[in-house]
Specification:
Helix 6 packs antiparallel against helix 9. This protein is 33% helix and 21% strand. The chain has two domains: 269 residues, 3-Layer(aba) Sandwich (Aminopeptidase); 81 residues, Alpha-Beta Plaits (2-Layer Sandwich). The strands form two sheets. A six-stranded mixed β-sheet has the order 2-1-3-6-4-5, with helices on both faces. Helix 2 links the parallel strand 1 and strand 2. The structure holds zinc ion.
Length: 369
């Protein structure tokens, strides 16, 4: 276990260096959602979950729903480039799925999966996941979805040469997950917004039961450099969910729901429509800060959990935390003068490639490009 921990920071650093700065401003300076990557889970010799009667596999359901969604987005938004990580029954490595999105400079990554449970339980419903840690109980880094996370991540064990490629990462070992929560700084807020859009749109059914939005350490989300969510559409092990998933009409309705979520997110992202964040009163309006007035700084992290300001992640820099909705944002290199903060940012971005310059006023954070 110790050995693994010593190796992981190297993976972490390599990952930081490998990921390009993703948010590209359009000509008018506004962010525009132009490219979406849809990722049908599993494929080829990795069937994913299998129904109890062994007649239906996750890989074919995820491909069908993804293809329907891709066609719907292409029709509704002709200017949006839609890329699939696979469009037939083939095995694609997790790392490759994330790299497809990164290399395309995608603005949104949607990974589609189907859930399952052991025999003897009848869990049902859909859930939406962003990167992070959903819970922390003592030394148990996360609890609620650990089985699911381990299972989805364990597909790397099917890859050739996975030991070299994933450098000691062991999907069954909670210690391996420690660094996951520190990524996706720039994208977590948008990821959570899209996740809420998905959760709300999916509520229309045919699978209506929501298991909520949570943050969990999925490898494929960790390696993407854009807002990313993973959707577990329903349970292949639940008879009602399975009946829905086996029906082409129902799969089409699910794809319709996902298109609706995509459209809502895109309009908000592009700034073409003002959309209130669902189920999040006070998302931006009730922010509070440790410091009042105006200051500038480098946002290095956004996360769902509270961190100690002495955490090694801050590398000795004095950090300020600002609560914003369900996220806590951490800002270092702060100054009352923009130019000074910009100088600090030039140094800090070498250590935190995912960071960006922000203006903070009365607890409201605004990104400065
Ligand atoms: Zn899966």
């Amino acid at each position: 276990m110790k050995r693994r921990l010593a190796i992981l920071p190297a993976v972490f650093t390599a990952a930081l260096l490998a990921i390009p700065m993703p948010m590209r401003a359009a000509d008018d300076g506004k962010l525009k959602l132009r490219t979406v990557v849809i990722d049908p889970g599993h494929g080829g010799h990795d069937p994913g979950c299998i129904s109890r009667d062994r007649k239906t596999s996750e890989k074919s359901l995820t491909l069908d729903i993804s293809q329907r969604l891709a066609r719907k987005i292409a029709t509704a938004w002709p200017d949006v480039k839609v890329i699939m990580t696979r469009s037939d029954d083939r095995y694609i490595e997790l790392e490759q799925r994330a790299m497809t999105a990164n290399n395309a400079g995608a603005d949104l990554f949607i990974s589609i999966h189907i859930n399952s449970v052991e025999r003897g339980t009848t869990a049902s419903g859909y859930s939406v996941h962003c990167l992070g840690q959903s819970a922390r109980k003592g030394n148990d880094l996360f609890s609620k979805n650990l089985d699911l996370v381990k299972r989805e991540n364990s597909v790397i064990l099917l890859e050739d040469d996975y030991k070299t490629k994933y450098q000691g990462f062991d999907p069954s070992d909670p210690q391996s997950y420690i660094f996951f929560s520190l990524m996706q700084n720039a994208h977590l807020e948008h990821s959570l917004l899209f996740a809420e859009d998905v959760a709300q749109a999916m509520g229309k059914g045919p699978i209506k039961k929501s298991r909520g939005v949570s943050q969990d350490p999925f490898w494929v989300l960790w390696r993407t450099a854009m807002p990313s969510v993973l959707i577990e559409v329903g349970f292949i092990t639940n008879p009602d969910d399975l009946a829905v998933l086996r029906s082409p009409e129902s799969r089409d309705r699910i794809a319709d729901n996902l298109l609706k979520a995509f459209s809502t997110f895109k309009m908000r992202y592009d700034g073409t429509m003002r959309v209130e964040t669902p189920d999040e009163p006070g998302w931006e309006s009730e922010t509070k800060a440790d410091t009042a007035g105006v200051f500038y700084g480098t946002q290095v992290l956004a996360t769902g959990r509270k961190m100690s300001l002495d955490d090694p992640f801050f590398q000795g820099n004095q950090a300020v935390s600002v609560e914003s909705g369900r996220l806590i944002k951490y800002i270092v290199g702060t100054s009352g003068e923009l130019e000074k903060a910009r100088d600090n940012f030039r140094v800090l971005r070498k250590k935190y490639p995912d960071s960006f310059l922000v203006r903070v006023q009365d607890g409201r954070i605004e990104r400065i490009n």
